[in-house]
Write a structure and sequence with these properties.
Distance between the termini: 47 Å
Number of helices: 11
Strand content: 5-15%
Order of helices and strands: EHEHEHHEHHHHHHH
Strand order of the largest sheet: 2-1-3-4
Length: about 270
């Protein structure tokens, strides 16, 4: 039988799940995900159950968000009861904990975080074509996965940016605007970095600001700081402000697709 894929994911990973959904369907593999494949007015829990019961494979989008999701946990349990092949698509270098470790101890992981996006999607396509649910004969890999590697690579595979839905574009546009405004107004505190999930870079901004603030306060008490100290503090503050301003300009001028690819999914640390 032809593979039918159910994509299980946290709502916070909607962009990545939509990319996988679009890529598999565009490659001739039937892929299902909520809410795209749930008709309006349908009972949500019943629809999810029917999709899982009818699937041959579950692609588990593995992130810290999915590990914290009770809904994803219930979907995984049901898929295992139905005998579906579980393919964890590990987009973060994150080991399962607790009950997750028990459920996923004997499955083959797809280490998507350790390879380029296109390679990860192609690897998923091959894995879907080469694995079969319990009691079912193995399927031949779909044609898209067996094309000669010497063939011209363009334009496959499509990136998530190319598959952005209107809702995704609206969400990313808002994130782009908020990140830029935070960089302009509170960039010295690293607010834009914390907003984008770059905690280390945000802490660097905040740490430098606090150190400079403490030095400036101590300079108001006698003995007065030297001119060299004043200059050093001024230069560092100027550098921090300049960095934040440059990042704000980058966010504002970058296209929605590039911002999603570079700053959200790509998690670029700076700019």
């Amino acid at each position: 039988m032809s593979p039918i894929i159910f994509i299980s994911y946290s709502a916070k990973d909607e962009i990545l799940a939509s990319a996988i959904h679009a890529f598999l369907n565009g490659s001739g593999i039937k892929a299902l995900k909520a809410p795209d494949d749930i008709a309006p007015g349908t009972n949500w829990a019943a629809a999810i159950t029917r999709m899982i019961e009818g699937c041959t494979h579950m692609v588990l989008v593995w992130t810290s968000n999915s590990m914290a999701s009770q809904e994803v946990s219930k979907e995984l349990t049901l898929a295992m009861q139905c005998g579906a092949v579980i393919i964890p698509f590990r987009s973060e270098d994150l080991a399962p904990e607790g009950a997750w470790r028990y459920h996923l101890s004997q499955v083959q992981w797809l280490e998507a975080h350790a390879m380029p996006e296109g390679q990860a999607l192609e690897s998923l396509l091959r894995q879907v074509g080469g694995s079969s649910p319990a009691g079912a004969p193995a399927n031949q890999p779909p044609a898209a996965a067996t094309q000669p590697t010497s063939a011209p690579p363009a334009p496959a595979p499509r990136s998530p940016a190319q598959e952005l839905s209107p809702t995704d574009r609206s969400t990313i546009r808002k994130k782009k605007l908020i990140a830029g405004l935070l960089a302009l107004s509170l960039g010295g505190l690293g607010a834009h970095k914390f907003f984008l999930g770059r905690t280390l870079q945000g802490c660097i901004y905040l740490g430098l600001f606090i150190v400079m603030f403490v030095i400036a306060l101590s300079g108001s008490e006698p003995p007065a700081p030297t001119n060299d100290a004043d200059t050093a503090v001024g230069l560092i503050l100027f550098f921090i402000s300049g960095m934040a301003l440059a990042e704000a300009i980058t966010y504002f001028t970058r296209s929605i697709e590039d911002f999603e690819r570079i700053n959200i999914r790509g998690k670029r640390p700076w700019f």
